[in-house]
Amino acid sequence: MTLKQHVVISSEEPGINPGLPRLRLALVAEAAERLLAADDPARMVDELFGLIQSELRLDVFFNYRLANGCLILEAHGGLTDEQAAAGSQLHLGQAVCGCAARDRQRFHMTGVQASDDPLVAFVKDVGLNCYVCTPLVHGGTLVGTLGFGRKWADRFTDDELSFLHTLCHYVALAKYRLRVEQELRAGIAHRERLLSELNHRVRNALQLAVSVIRLEAGAEADQACAAAMRRAGDRIEVIASAHRPIYASGDLSTVCIAELLGDVGGNRAATSIKVTTTEGARLPIEQGVALALLVDTILSDARQIGKTAPMEIIVEGASGAITEVVLRGVAQSDDVLAQRLPRALLRQLEAMHSTEGEALIIRLPARPHA
Question: Does the global pTM surpass 0.70?
Fold first, then answer.
């Protein structure tokens, strides 16, 4: 018996034959729903086989995944462990599934038990008498093959072939979706690792810069120059502190104000500082750094004039937007906010300021972060 006598090759697009029994149409609908919601490529084909096995009286299925130019047996049913091991990997063009993958055509093998063709040797040894294998292709991308076999009959009917071909179309779509999702997740995870490492390196570099500046300040004979260098080191450390809260949240574009100002207060205060914020209060990282530098400047001034009473920082806002920062217990003169750096920071924040007794109030425009 020649190959052409028992192979039917088809490249037609999948479609549902309107003459299919209602039960099979329902099976197609249920299978499509399951496949498009699946999250495991091997288990979803196992479940598909269980769904249609009785209706089509199937004995075996083979599901191969294309990887590095070879077909890897990803899921199967009706095979012994020895048979599965024997067919665990195929080259393109090897056996029925390898030919279906190479040619991207559906193969319908009939009268297998009466055939001496080496192409069907494996499915013949399994005991099948007919076998249909469909390449799983979506958008021009080959993702594998899916085949079904029977031992009790020598062929599938045209309606059965159309039914199986339609199901394979949905399997190809589902597998392609899962592959794309896996690649996207891997890409996102890789990007997050890179960004985390970048933030870590930036913070370490800033800390190194602080150490160098303080070392130089300690060796500086001119006290005014040494004091200026120490202030510069303090401000760089504030910028470094802005990176620390990012690690905990995984949000690489905004910073938690409570953690940021808590770090500033803990590093700079001559006395205890309590930080109270609206839940979820965050700012874009650039604005957060500017606010931290401004608060640091104010607290440093309070320290220089010998302020010892407990201080409190209250951050208020709505819907995630920071609208007001109140620094209580700060004896603040207009001279500090009139200096060059605080003026520049207030402009960057587009903020206004006022005083109420010993409380300094900084008002920011209500701009929820993206």
Answer: no
